[in-house]
Amino acid sequence: MTTPGLRERKRQATREALRTAALRLALEHGASKVRVEDIAAAAGVSPRTYNNYFASREQAIVSAVTAGRETRVAAAVARRPPTVRLADAVTEAVVEQYTTTGQHELETLLLITTWSPLRKAFLDASAGIELPLTAAIAARLPDAGAHTARVLAASVAAAVRIAVENWLQPAGDDTSPEGFDTGGLVVPFGSLTDQLGTALAPLAPAFDAAEEQAHPEA
Amino acid sequence: MTTPGLRERKRQATREALRTAALRLALEHGASKVRVEDIAAAAGVSPRTYNNYFASREQAIVSAVTAGRETRVAAAVARRPPTVRLADAVTEAVVEQYTTTGQHELETLLLITTWSPLRKAFLDASAGIELPLTAAIAARLPDAGAHTARVLAASVAAAVRIAVENWLQPAGDDTSPEGFDTGGLVVPFGSLTDQLGTALAPLAPAFDAAEEQAHPEA
DNA sequence: TAGCATACCTGCGTGTGCGCAAGTTTGCGT
DNA sequence: ACGCAAACTTGCGCACACGCAGGTATGCTA
């Protein structure tokens, strides 16, 4: 692993500075009170540059929580031995990464769940696993159809999104009234591990079929 | 005075970081042992960027000492009331700036005098006053010939260079054997104020003549 | 409800940093 | 004295940050 060169290191440093500044300011002053201008100033860059890194004000905040999760999930999949079913490898990898790195501080989690734009951005962030995961799955299915890996990865991302959505079931959200109401507050509904398992289960046959086609067994 | 904008502020910050890093490293490890790469790394930029700011390894070090002197001399000239002779205004301004801001720490001064490439760079730095000084002189001679101010400013720069050169009379330099020999060490020779006065004196008639032509008195 | 102000986000031109490669100088070891 | 290696300096192309201007959403006030 070679050193990425000064340009790339500064890039990552700026990303990280924006992330931490956004989260800090959101915790200090409330998520809805933080302006892009403030985050940029705290990170030492121009507001324009902020939008070169993040497309919305919320992305930087959620990025502080989800940082690197995309590549870690993919790496976790690649780490499983080829002997385990691909469906299991993916599920285990997702659960592993979402449960070990997911729960920073309770305060941060509440910050995200309490403001609906942040919740939305948090859910959208799960789509980020699609590309890295595509590569990891493709490595396991070298002979599969051209788009098989992409479709499977995108499906996993969608399933994860739904799992997290259910987990963060917002109280008073009439489209899913089973949420736990705590006076306007939003609380996790059930265990994240269970939600992920349930959401990913329906995809297992698709993985099995793709694997079957790739390595037709005797 | 408006805020110069983020881009310009970062520029100046980089300049300053390079200056201080260069001086610090030179004091710590010896001037001849400092590589451009080290200075750049300490300032957080690439070696290529160092040479965007300074044309030689020595310039950053001397720049740490002469920082801003160019504009301050010009400002000091502009500050004198129009009633005083231009020749006196310039001389006073030069002496004022070179004696009040010139002597940082003795250690730094020795650093510069002990290594001849640094001495040379230090002397070359005096040419930097030419452009700002041109503007200041031109402001006092609005009706003079097109190049008069430039010529006078360049002459002042040359005179200053000679004054400083005499002041730093290197021991054992055969071209000027009157230096004070201290076993290979280089020591100031006479007072800087005197040297500047002596070097600038021959230019006074030129200033007087230019002023005369600009404001023909009764 | 209409108008207005604030903040967000994006497109575009320009300035600057980075990386690389080439030519040169400097100092050292053979 | 010669060759070699390390360091310096500069030209060039590319990537990124900045500043500005324009279009949109959101919230407040009259």
Poorly predicted tracts of residues of chain A: 170-187
CATH topology of the largest domain in chain A: Tetracycline Repressor, domain 2
State the end-to-end distance of chain A: 40 Å
- Give the assembly state of these chains: homodimer
For this structure, what is the CATH class of the largest domain in chain A? Mainly Alpha
Helix content percent band of chain A: 55-70%
CA-based shape of chain A: globular
* Count of folded domains of chain A: 2
Number of strands of chain A: 0
In terms of DSSP E residues, the strand content of chain A is: under 5%
The CATH architecture designation of the largest domain in chain A is: Orthogonal Bundle
- The chain-level mean pLDDT of chain A equals 88
The computed structural class of chain A is mainly alpha
Largest sheet of chain A: none
Largest interface, Cβ cutoff 8 Å: A-B, 3 and 3 residues
Task: Give, in order, the helices and strands of chain A.
Answer: HHHHHHHHHHHH
Q: How many alpha or pi helices of chain A? A: 12
Could you list some keywords that capture this structure?
homodimer, 218 residues, mainly alpha, Arc Repressor Mutant, subunit A, Tetracycline Repressor, domain 2, 2 domains, 12 helices, 0% strand, globular, DNA-binding
Task: Describe the 3D structure.
The structure is a homodimer of 218-residue chains. The first copy, chain A, has helices at 5-29, 36-43, 47-53, 57-66, 69-79, 86-100, 106-114, 116-125, 130-140, 148-167, 192-200, 204-214. Chain A has 218 residues and is an all-alpha fold. The first copy, chain A, has two domains: 1-64, Arc Repressor Mutant, subunit A (Orthogonal Bundle); 68-214, Tetracycline Repressor, domain 2 (Orthogonal Bundle). In chain A, helix 7 (106-114) packs across helix 8. The relative contact order of chain A is 0.11. The structure holds a DNA duplex (30 and 30 nucleotides). Chains A, B: Residues 35-54 bind DNA.
